[in-house]
Amino acid sequence: MQAYISGRNVNLTFRPPNRGPVRALQNFDIDIGEGEFLSIVGPSGCGKSTFLNVLLGLIKPDSGDIRMDGKPLAGPGTDRAMVFQEFGLLPWRTVQANVELGLELKGMSSDTRREVSQPLIEMIGLSGFEGHFPHELSGGMKQRVGLARALATDPNVLLMDEPFAALDAQTRDLMQVELLRIWQTAKKTVLFVTHQIEEAIYLSDRVMVMTKRPGRAKKIFKIDLPRPRDYEMRVTPEFNELKLQIWNELKDEITV
Q1: Which of 102, 136, 145, 158 is least buried, going by the fewest C-beta atoms within 10 A?
Q2: Which residues are CB-neighbours of 80 under 8 A, at least 6 positions away?
Q3: Spatial strand order in the sheet of 63-68
Q4: The whole model's pTM is what?
């Protein structure tokens, strides 16, 4: 596999004032192919979200080499977009205005913004809700708007930081199905952080297990399950064998 995103020996230590340093990442390596869906699972505080922020260009590592499409990563860029756990919608903006936020910041005209946003709103299944405000939407609908907003600027890479963690179990399952449908349509490279092993297996081409802090890659599992995937595959022996293998790698890293 040709790596579209690569990280080698990435090290990062936080040094907050009046407190001791916290080593977040140590000799962290990763390779992600173009168009691949890769998930990261690991114990809380192991540096999963930290690495997403490094890739987004918001945090500069102390050392290491990070490249995208063969070029060194140098700060934020429109080729990457983040989908957050907390929805992050602006409450005074409608669905359409939230989806168009990044386009507006880029100086696009209202007509051009609408040409981009309307197909995305249709793709996420929210036609007819363009004029609704966030407080009028369910949690799943809000997360769809957040996903459409990330896709609106046409990034090459989607970084997803536990985007479904705040949803109830049924909505979460539905959003996983929806995300796979959108990913297969939009053909983006996805790096997805989650605490749920089942979610990681169901969505991904590969799953990385990280060690406890300081985080590094412990083992990567290739998910050789056929696509498109349906919900029923979660009860197959192959799925549950993968779940057990990943759990066995992860459980030693979890400290109570």
Answers
A1: 136
A2: 55, 56, 57, 68, 155, 156, 157, 159
A3: 22-33, 3-14, 63-68, 71-72
A4: 0.90
How far, in Å, CA of 119 to CA of 68, rounded?
28
Please report, as a single letter, which amino acid is at residue 165. Answer: A
Which value, in Å, is the radius of gyration of the alpha carbons in the chain? 18
Burial class (CB in 10 A: 0-12, 13-18, 19+), 47: buried
Q: Domains plus CATH for the chain?
A: 3-79+155-253 (3.40.50.300), 87-153 (no CATH)
DSSP annotation of 211: P
Neighbours of 228 (CB within 10 A): 9
**How many residues are listed for the chain in this entry?**
256
Range list of H helices, the chain: 48-56, 95-99, 101-105, 110-123, 139-152, 169-186, 197-203, 237-250
Cα 24 to Cα 39: distance, rounded to the nearest angstrom: 19
pLDDT per position as a tens digit, 196-206 = 999 999 999 99
| Euclidean distance between CA atoms 203 and 200, whole angstroms | 5
Please answer whether residues 40 and 210 qualify as being in contact, where contact means their C-beta atoms are separated by less than 8 angstroms.
yes
Reduced to 3 states (helix: H, G, I; strand: E, B; else coil), residue 34 is coil
Closest among 83, 116, 79, 82 to 97, alpha carbons compared: 116
Q: Which of 14, 7, 58, 40 is nearest to 193 (CA)?
A: 40
**SS3 category, 126:** coil
Q: Beta strand 217-222 with 63-68: parallel, antiparallel or unpaired?
A: unpaired
